[in-house]
Specification:
mainly alpha, 130 residues, Non-ribosomal Peptide Synthetase Peptidyl Carrier Protein, Chain A
Amino acid sequence: MLQGFKEFISRGNAMEMAVGIVIGAAFGKVVEALVEGIINPLIGGLFGDVNFASAWAVKLGPATISFGLVINAIIYFLLVALAIYFLIVVPMNKMAAMRKAKNEEPEAPADDVRLLEEIRDLLAKQQPPM
């Protein structure tokens, strides 16, 4: 039972997933700092409220609906998605395409094509050069 778990953990996919989770968590902090430190103040400067998280808050009795927090989360999500796409997905797709092109062997011609090529070559040998 432990041997099966060891094989599962030592497989590439499980290890890559674990590394991806750790890197993703660290990258999330970088994006969060970018959103909170640069993007929100810029947007807040445009709309006159530096604290963008509390911007566009609507009070409904004791409850507060904060549209700024939702917009903050959307910005955060889009930045993470763009970064993951351009830094991970695009390079991996290019590497996979290069690996596929490298590993592809030219297909052997079909039997009928091979026979026609042999006939062509024999006919070319029989005709005198001009």
